[in-house]
């Protein structure tokens, strides 16, 4: 049997994908990138540049700034399209995550006759559920009659692929939409969304994703996988700051199709946008779903983070992430803790610690190890490839061992 590699050996093997020097690192060991990513050093410079443009150019900065504001959001398209595996016209940076989900539901949840059910994962992120249930009520229906779930087996917390496929088939011609968090925010489980999209389309329904915990974390190929739409935030693995500018993906299959849609002036045909015509003419592509001009300071911060991603080969980043997470799992088992997150995952590990989860997380924080709690019994820990190290995992495991012993 091969001897497990040490933290030093693993760091040397995966060092090319580390960009720790590109970030401001807080004191201690930060394993909470699944909740809020760290601050890129370039972010403040980018934002200050736009403050200067505002101060010196005022309204003329829309067209005369170094990066003109009128097209600033387009600077984000390259990086985002690479991260999600989509074409440029399928991706747009705009709004916040739940706003974008509402916009997508207007277009892609179209209950008709028997086909009206929405199928979601057990343990869907609450804001997504609130949004979905509000749309069901908006259409004059009752959520308890329309919203259905992929359920884990008795005494299990992880969904099985075969059970998910069976559930799609069972609902069949009554199914309008499947919506999944990829991965699940609570368990960290990543689903085989390519296979699920095929099964969903086979029964005549659509599939959308909430990539809040996926973008910048999981390898994604949304166009090739035939995902109908996706939404995400940018303050977790995308490191764009609290409340940062979110984004959306709309597959080319739906471009140019007469879909119901909420519309605003920033989705209007660009050459005539400032002519202020009475009739809305869509840009075409995902940008058509824009409503208002984007917040420039938030966009500047996101641009800083995307520049870090652009400096790393994605396969190397994903390989480092997997190695870090596998190493963390092994070290946690070494201190007697069980991980509920399956091997199909990103950076996050959800660890069952019993009824004392909050007390354990507080004790870890006092020792400089930052994690987060999901009541009643889970701690989430996420070693991020861009800035966490294998040596930090060793240190965190030792702190955890000491905290549990006390």
What does this structure look like?
This protein is of the alpha/beta class and 406 residues long. It folds into two domains: 106 residues, Aspartate Aminotransferase, domain 1 (Alpha-Beta Complex); 261 residues, Aspartate Aminotransferase, domain 2. It has 13 helices and 13 strands. The strands form three sheets. The chain has a seven-stranded mixed beta sheet, sandwiched between helices. Strands 9-10-13-12 form a four-stranded antiparallel beta sheet, with helices on one face. Helix 1 runs antiparallel to helix 13, helix 2 packs antiparallel against helix 10 and helix 5 packs parallel to helix 6. The model has no long low-confidence stretch (mean pLDDT 96).
Give the count of helical stretches.
Answer: 13
- CATH superfamily of the largest domain, by name, is Type I PLP-dependent aspartate aminotransferase-like (Major domain)
Overall outline:
globular
Largest sheet: 7 strands, mixed
CATH topology of the largest domain: Aspartate Aminotransferase, domain 2
Average pLDDT over all residues: 96
Q: Give the uncertain stretches in residue-range form.
A: none
Strand order of the largest sheet: 2-8-7-6-5-3-4
Helicity level, as a percent range?
25-40%
Q: Strand-residue fraction?
A: 5-15%
Straight-line N-to-C gap: 34 Å
The H-and-E topology, N to C, reads as HEHHHEHEHHEHEHEEEHHEEHEEEH
Structural class call reads alpha/beta
Task: Map the helices and strands.
Layout (H helix, E strand, L loop, with lengths): L6 H7 L15 E2 L10 H17 L3 H4 L12 H8 L6 E3 L3 H12 L8 E5 L4 H13 L4 H4 E4 L10 H11 L3 E7 L11 H10 L3 E5 L18 E4 L14 E4 L45 H15 L3 H21 L3 E2 L9 E4 L4 H10 L2 E2 L1 E3 L3 E4 L8 H16 L1
Parallel strand pairs: 1-11, 3-4, 3-5, 5-6, 6-7
Antiparallel strand pairs: 2-8, 7-8, 9-10, 10-13, 12-13
Helix pairs in contact: 1-13, 2-10, 5-6, 11-13
């Amino acid at each position: 049997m091969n001897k497990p590699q040490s933290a030093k050996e693993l760091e040397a093997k995966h060092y090319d994908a580390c960009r720790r020097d590109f970030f401001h690192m807080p004191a201690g060991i930060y394993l909470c990138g699944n909740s809020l990513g760290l601050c890129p050093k370039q972010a403040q410079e980018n934002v200050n540049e736009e403050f200067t443009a505002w101060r010196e150019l005022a309204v003329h900065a829309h067209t005369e700034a170094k990066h003109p504001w009128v097209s600033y959001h387009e600077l984000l398209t390259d990086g985002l399209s690479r991260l999600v595996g989509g074409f440029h016209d399928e991706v747009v940076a705009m709004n916040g995550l739940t706003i974008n989900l509402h916009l997508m539901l207007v277009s892609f949840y179209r209950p008709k006759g028997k086909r009206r059910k929405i199928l979601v994962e057990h343990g869907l992120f609450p804001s997504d559920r609130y949004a979905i249930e509000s749309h069901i009520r908006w259409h004059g229906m009752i959520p308890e009659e329309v919203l259905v779930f992929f359920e884990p087996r008795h005494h299990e917390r992880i969904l099985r692929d075969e059970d998910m496929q069976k559930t799609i088939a069972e609902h069949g011609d009554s199914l309008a939409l499947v919506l999944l968090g990829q991965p699940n925010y609570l368990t960290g489980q990543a689903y085989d969304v390519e296979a699920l999209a095929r099964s969903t389309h086979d029964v005549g329904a659509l599939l959308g994703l909430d990539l809040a915990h996926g973008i910048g974390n999981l390898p994604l190929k949304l166009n090739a996988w035939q995902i109908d739409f996706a939404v995400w935030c940018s303050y977790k693995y995308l490191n764009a700051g609290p409340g940062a500018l979110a984004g959306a993906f709309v597959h080319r299959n739906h471009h140019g199709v007469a879909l119901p849609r909420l519309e605003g002036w920033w989705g209007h045909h660009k050459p005539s946008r400032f002519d202020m015509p009475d009739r809305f003419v869509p840009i075409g592509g995902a940008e058509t779903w824009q409503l208002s001009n984007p917040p420039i300071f938030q966009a500047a911060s996101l641009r800083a983070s995307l520049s870090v991603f652009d400096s790393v080969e994605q396969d190397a980043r994903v390989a480092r992430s997997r190695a870090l997470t596998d190493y963390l799992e092994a070290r946690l088992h070494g201190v007697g803790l069980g991980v509920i997150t399956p091997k199909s995952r990103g950076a996050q590990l959800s660890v069952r610690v019993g009824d004392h989860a909050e007390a354990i997380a507080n004790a870890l924080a006092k020792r400089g190890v930052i994690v987060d709690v999901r009541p009643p019994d889970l701690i989430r820990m996420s070693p991020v490839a861009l800035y966490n190290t294998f040596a930090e995992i060793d240190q965190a495991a030792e702190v955890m061992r000491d905290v549990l012993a006390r």
